[in-house]
Amino acid sequence: MILKMKDKDMINLKIDGKNVSVEAGTTILEAAKKVNVKIPTLCYHPDLCIAGNCRVCMVEIEGSRTLAAACAMPVDQNMNVLTNSLKVRTARKHNIELLLSEHNSECTKCYKNGNCELQDLAAEYKITNDTFIDLVPFHNYTIDHYSPSIIKDDSKCIRCQRCVRTCEELQSVSALGVAYKGEHMKISTFLEKSMYDVVCTNCGQCVNRCPVGALVEKNYIDQVWDAIYDKSKHVVVQTAPAVRVALGEDLGLENGEIVTGKMVAGLRKLGFDSVLDTDFTADLTIMEEGTELLTRLKRALVDKDPTVALPMTTSCSPGWIKFIEHQFPQLLPNVSTCKSPQQMFGALAKTYYAQERNLNPANIVSISIMPCTAKKFEADRPEMRSSGYKDVDFVLTTRELAVMLKQAGIDFKSIPEEKYDSIMGQSTGAAVIFGATGGVMEAALRTAYEIVTGREVPFNELNITPVRGMEGVKEASVKIEGTLPEWKFLEGATLNTATAHGLVNAKKVMEMVVSGEANYHFIEIMACPGGCLGGGGQPIPTNAEIRMKRSDAIYREDSGMPIRKSHENPEVAQIYKEFLEKPLGHKSHQLLHTHYVDRTKK
Amino acid sequence: MSSHNLKKTDIIFGICHTSDDNQNILPGGVCKTSRTKYTVLEEVIKKDPKDIINDIIESGLKGRGGAGFPTGYKWKFGAASPETEKYVICNADEGEPGTFKDRDILLKVPGKIYAGMAICGYCIKAKQGYIYLRGEYRYMIPELQKVLDEFHETIKKIGFDFHIDILLGSGAYVCGEETALMESMEGKRGEPRNKPPFPTIEGFRNKPTVINNVETFVNVVMIQKLGVDEFRKLGTQDSRGSKVFSVSGDTPIPGVYELELGMKLCDFVDEYGDGDTKAVQVGGASGFCVPRKKFDETIIGFEGIPTGGSMMLFNSSRSMYNVLCNYLDFFAEESCGQCTPCRVGCQQLIRGIKAVKCGQRPPEYLDTLLKLTDSMRLSAKCGLGQSVANSFSSIVSNFTEEMIY
Asked: Which domain holds residue A475?
């Protein structure tokens, strides 16, 4: 009976003569994939809603007056689809030629040269002459260079609107939108201002999805080479947790391959004087942020201080920070004052590290490798100079590091693995999982629970699975029992947490906080889908399947680490002993904490 | 002078259905609204909606906006959905160059439009209707609203649960495309949607929606009033009824005329031409250009050249190159810009014919452009992009010399 019901909902059709049976509602594109028929696409992206506007995936349906966009057309019973008829080829070629005619095709000088979907299509269809008139000179195109994170070049835009859909659907930011119509139609911002001057969070998700070179990260590759070759400079580099599970993708390795050791070796070969790990300051973040949370709870529960802002949210994700500064400035007191691990690292590199290694901080150049474009903006924030210098001089994305490794001719596949330098190179499993959504929450719980009770978190092998996974908003509660004497006030309390990734989900959670609907104590927010592993600076393409593979890799890396709790990181213990004294101490406040800006006021 | 083959009719403006007699028609056809009784609705409410829809199917009525989808079937699809929230929309975004017949209908017989919408609401079980009025027709609102208020009062007495609101467009041509119109109504950018789903399944606010042209709704009322057989007597096998035409260009008598469908273009030109007509653009900028040599063989109707009502006449003093440039400039400006073939194709067509005219590209480049219009027709997302090919190919292939020299 059940089988019969199922049969009823199945649609049988033919694609290029191959019989396919799929569920009702499936698109022709999806059905074609099932029988290995490749249909080229451009505006389609598996993370986004269907636009059907590039008209590259056109197919012929027998008996139909017009061609159909395979990405948008649902299958129908007994449909006969042709994906390579003369009509189809001609229309597709025309549409590719039209796109090329409005695209600034200076491919050899383009940052995306070699990683451009339009270029690939042009190659596939062997577009060798200008059939149509070059339209670029007729438009008054501008390039927006002002943002430290993202460059927007309208002359290369093909109006596929992936960026617009990304900004709206995944991030609920809508910094990018469609303006004007007809030949003047363009992707623009509020009043056509620079990306720097609008509500853009610099998350770079648009950059990750742009099929061409219209949206790219602002790259600092040459500046970093210059620093490396400057003999008077001591160049330190830090690598974020999520980079090690994605970098390989840009260098010919499989999705989700862990390349930590190769990356360290590669960086050393590039000429960095010291290869260190952002994981170290991720562990430090847990110490500071965990203590901050417990302090806030104490003030609320014991001191009955009504000014304490709860729930407390994390502050590691600079895209999230700019988002809340724009959209929920009234909740800024709820954001942890901890700097992100990148900025903690930067501040310590030019103080503690300089002191320990007997270096003049003026001669240290601090570089970070991040899965993120917002980190470039963060490093430029005026608050981020607590060492007396710019704490992080240059931020490179995972993609930019891959470019440098290629430029240096390093054979990444065969390079033997190496280990991080010390000091500030030691890591724990808790720090590694910062790269995945729920990771900060899990790391914080592993440490905070143990601080309060003296026992490990009551989860099998420390794996706090309720906060893992790709669900948009994950709620989890931990009951605190058997507290140590100084934490007695938490005895029997239930700590309610929420974990959200992708700003669209962050918005949902924040709206619940504003309305009073939520009774959370601690909220982890990551601006990008999947957390940093799906960051805007990660290899292109990124999609749900790839994010899952990177996530699996991160948790594999965690479970393989000898130390898996931040407070057990020996270098963290050492820095408190020798330099910082204690979490939330005077030096911590000076170097590791920050404040935020209400960006609705100008 | 009048040809016996050209039948002027008086269905749309003529009999004021809304009352029991014709005394309520003011000079010029304007309904005197104060005594409007909407008797047709009293009849309608006694009937089974299915019968009414069958009547409309039987009548052969096709949409009067230009595309010509059979109205009865559209209503049938709308009625078939089990959804409880449904909408009726009247497309009054008359934006096709050379079309101004809805303006007259709106000004003269608004009550018929409202009644037609109410019948639709009754048939598909929708309680809410909207009139999407062209932005430039803003000045009509006070009068339309006055009649509408009276309409609401009257139908309440009859026992009709139906309400109409008037919404205003903002001037984009593409918003006359039904799904772009709905996007615009929802407060979004007016861009056509992917179809399917069609509006009768997912329309305004993603609810089943029947959207028809102003004139179509009036025709429905007249089918109810006159009966299917009377209606079917007008027109031809494929084009039943009469049609309101907007006649403009090189004619001594421009204006709005109601004529039986299925006429021969030569008869039309005899009546409305200035004796020197070299071409007629049938159906506006998105329609077809018919040269003099084809007047005899061209039928105006769904078996020949369908039209939303625009008939533009050009005499021998006109440059068809200029006419085409004008249309293409319009399309390059009025494309919504979302899909490649329309946004870029329109720019290529206008720049292309200019390049041929000034010798930057060889005359053969016109063939390249004609092939491009084939692809635009096949692959553009909506009717706008698909129909640019109509005027381009008909003008270029019939007046090739004018394009080159």
From this structure: 294-336+439-532+564-592
- CA distance readout (Å), A217 to A191, A370, A397: 22, 12, 8
Is residue A347 domain-resident? no
* Cα separation, B15 vs B29, whole angstroms: 9
What span, in angstroms and rounded, lies between the C-alpha atoms of B63 and B68? 4
B:37-76 residues touching chain A, CB 8 A cutoff: none
Which residue intervals of chain B bear CATH 3.10.20.600?
242-315
Q: Which residues lie below 8 Å from residue A430, measured CB to CB, with a gap of 6+?
A: A282, A283, A286, A442, A443, A446, A447, A558, A564, A565, A566
Give yes or no for B343 touching A (CB within 8 A): yes
**How far is Cα B335 from Cα A335, in angstroms, rounded to an integer?**
46
* Reported confidence tier of residue A7, pLDDT bands at 50, 70, 90: low
Residue B113, both tokens? 């439009």
The pLDDT tens digits for A78-96 are 999 999 999 999 999 999 9
Mutate to test the interface with A, among B344, B356, B360, B361 (most CBs of A within 10 A): B344
Rounded to whole angstroms, what are the CA distances from B399 to A109, B168, B171, B249, B291?
44, 39, 32, 18, 8
From residue B331, alpha-carbon distances to A51, A179, B288, B371 in Å are 22, 17, 15, 18
For the segment A397-410, the average pLDDT, to the nearest whole number, is 98
Residue A414: CB atoms within 10 A of its CB come to 7
Element spanning B91, H or E: strand B87-92
Contact A238, A369 (CB under 8 A): yes
**Is the predicted ipTM greater than 0.90, yes or no?**
yes
Q: Give the relative orientation of helices B383-398 and B365-379 as an angle to the nearest 10 degrees.
A: 150
Task: Note whether A208 and A308 are same-domain residues.
Answer: no
What CATH class does B320-404 carry? mainly alpha
| Domain-ending residue, one of A84, A110, A138 | A84
Nearest CA in chain B to A51: B194
Peptide bond into A371 cis (omega under 30): no
A383 is annotated as an active-site residue = yes
Q: Show the tokens assigned to A46.
A: 């598996």
- Is residue A473 classed as helix, strand or coil in its secondary structure? strand
Same structural domain for residues A576 and A446?
A: yes
Helix axes B214-226, B101-108, angle to 10 degrees: 60
φ/ψ of residue B257, rounded to 5: -135, 145
Span(s) in chain B for CATH 1.20.1440.230:
320-404
- Do the strands A215-217 and A150-153 form a parallel or antiparallel pair, or are they unpaired? antiparallel
Q: Find chain A residues with C-beta within 8 A of B332's C-beta.
A: 182-183
Measured between alpha carbons, how far is A86 from A72 in angstroms, rounded to an integer? 21
Any bridge partners for residue B213, and if so which? B91
- Chain B: give the shortest CA distance to residue A483, in Å: 54
- Superfamily of the domain at B22-233: NADH-ubiquinone oxidoreductase 51kDa subunit (3.40.50.11540)
Report the relative pairing of strands B299-300 and A234-239 from DSSP bridges. Answer: unpaired
Note the pLDDT of residue A37. Answer: 97
CA–CA distance, B104 with A538 (Å, rounded to integer): 60
Give per-residue pLDDT as tens, B36-63: 678 889 999 999 999 999 999 999 999 9
Q: How far is CA A580 from the centre of its chain?
A: 30
Does B377 contact A at CB distance below 8 Å?
yes
Helix axes B340-357, B383-398, angle to 10 degrees: 20
A530: left (phi over 0), alpha (psi -120 to 50) or beta: left
- CATH code of the domain containing A7: 3.10.20.740
Q: How far apart are CA A156 and CA A268, in angstroms?
A: 36
Q: Which CATH number fits domain B242-315: 3.40.50.150, 2.40.10.120, 3.40.50.12640, 3.10.20.600?
A: 3.10.20.600
